[in-house]
Design a protein that fits this description.
Blueprint: E1 2-7, E2 21-25, E3 30-35, H1 39-45, E4 55-57, H2 63-66, H3 69-77, E5 88-92, H4 96-107, E6 116-120, E7 125-127, E8 132-137, E9 145-151, E10 154-158, H5 166-172, E11 177-181, H6 197-207, E12 211-215, H7 219-223, H8 226-232, E13 237-240, E14 246-248
Parallel strand pairs: 3-4, 4-5, 5-6, 10-11, 11-12, 12-13
Antiparallel strand pairs: 1-2, 1-14, 2-3, 7-8, 8-9, 9-10
Bound molecules: zinc ion (2 copies).
Residues 10, 20, 62, 64-65, 161, 216 line the site of one zinc ion (ZN).
């Protein structure tokens, strides 16, 4: 599997870090995890045709994770030069269909391209052409999900936005790569629903992934160098997420 980080940042405008978006390419599938603002443009930047994305899995419906959904769909429907050749599947947690319904009410059929499927993840695991996806609820907003994608004997887990949780540890157990948020520094006031470096270290040491990518970095996380803090207390390769960084798993 190949992971390309499209957005390692948050809702705060930042020239170096876009809002959340991660591309995973398996042998036959192109999957987006979240689609924050700028994600579609970043795909163009790395030479991946957005019309070839098969699935978008949303961790939750906060705007920094869903902001590019409307531009993505509008650009799909009104691309007069090229058409999609495969269905487009949009997945989210509970309430995702309601969000799509509200967007459709505002934008009508402008955002409904041909062969669009919109659905909510009911839990458990789902198997597709050449990958399997498992989910668990994580504590952030009510409908927040973390995802585990398995393909060709490898596994990538994406925490989405989350607070410390046993469910994430279980989902991430012994995975090849854990993409985990760290939105706060330890000396900031703890914000419910996000992780501090201490909690990331605890999660990594309990889940025991082979590698970890630290992401969803607010500007103060860069200022306080949270990734270096995490590196000191875990015994595995820890990578600071950067926009357009590619990792082969
Ligand atoms: Zn977020
Ligand atoms: Zn959020």
């Amino acid at each position: 599997m190949k992971l390309t980080i499209l957005g390692s940042g948050t809702c705060i405008p930042n020239t170096k870090r876009g809002s959340s978006g991660y591309l995973i390419q398996t042998s036959n599938s192109k999957i987006l995890l979240d689609c924050g603002s700028g994600t579609t443009w970043k795909l163009e930047e790395i030479g991946v045709n957005y019309l070839e994305i098969d699935h978008i899995f949303f961790s939750h419906i906060h705007p920094d994770h869903t902001g590019d959904l409307v531009p993505f769909l509008f650009g799909t429907k009104y691309n007069h030069y090229q058409k999609r050749e495969r269905p487009l599947n949009l997945w989210g947690g509970k309430g995702f269909i309601k969000l799509f319904g509200a967007l459709k009410k505002a934008y009508s059929n402008w955002i409904v391209p041909k062969d669009l499927c919109v659905d909510e993840i009911k839990g458990g695991s789902q198997t597709y052409e050449d990958f399997k996806i498992l989910t668990t609820k994580v504590p952030h907003i009510e409908s927040s999900l973390a995802y585990r994608i398995e393909s060709e004997g490898k596994s990538i887990v994406y925490s989405g936005d989350t607070d410390y949780s046993e469910s994430l540890i279980n989902l991430a157990a012994k995975c090849d790569l854990l993409i985990i948020e760290c939105a706060l520094a330890d000396d900031d006031h703890k914000i419910k629903g996000h992780l501090t470096p201490t909690e990331v270290i605890k999660t990594i040491n309990a889940a025991n992934p082979k590698k970890a990518v630290i992401t969803h970095l607010y500007p103060e996380c860069d200022e306080k160098n949270v990734v270096e803090i995490i590196k000191k207390d875990v015994d595995l390769e820890v990578i600071e997420a950067q926009d357009l960084l590619e990792l082969i798993i």
